[in-house]
Write a structure and sequence with these properties.
single chain, 139 residues, alpha+beta, Pnp Oxidase, Chain A, six-stranded antiparallel beta barrel, 34% helix, 35% strand
């Protein structure tokens, strides 16, 4: 899909999510979405994206799949530069810390995403990279 269209869809998703407290855009079938806000590593601006997530106890897991693109999404670099993030789940906002999962946890977590949505297996093959999984934990 063209990047401009993806940007527009993401903006609409964010807007509806915030407006409705996650009632619209927080869940599609069994898939749950959160809003992740990071600080741009180069611009310093706050960036908010809707991302699929899974729960792991009190933590949230997010895959950095970028739809199977060969490069990590920019927000991974943002988290590496500043691990302090904010996360909106429904109408609740949490101050969290993001870290990249190490092996073997990364593989175990990514397999959970493949179980949830089988096309995640294709993303990793198509991307030619090991797709990171970010663990979001409360500060």
């Amino acid at each position: 899909m063209h990047p401009t269209i993806m940007h527009w869809i993401g903006s609409l998703h964010r807007w509806l999510y915030v407006l409705t407290g996650g009632y619209v855009g927080g869940q599609f079938g069994s898939l749950k979405f959160l809003l992740l806000t990071t600080r741009g590593s180069q611009s310093g601006r706050l960036r908010t994206l809707p991302l699929l997530y899974l729960e792991d106890g009190e933590n949230f897991l997010i895959p950095a799949s970028s739809g199977g693109n060969p490069r990590n999404p920019a927000w991974v670099g943002n988290i590496k530069a500043d691990s302090n993030v904010s996360v909106r789940v429904g109408s609740k906002v949490f101050l969290m810390k993001g870290i990249l999962a190490d092996e073997p946890d990364r593989t175990r977590f990514y397999e959970r995403f493949v179980e949830t949505m089988s096309h995640y297996a294709e993303y990793e093959k198509r991307s030619g990279r090991v797709i990171p999984v970010i663990i979001l934990s409360k500060r």
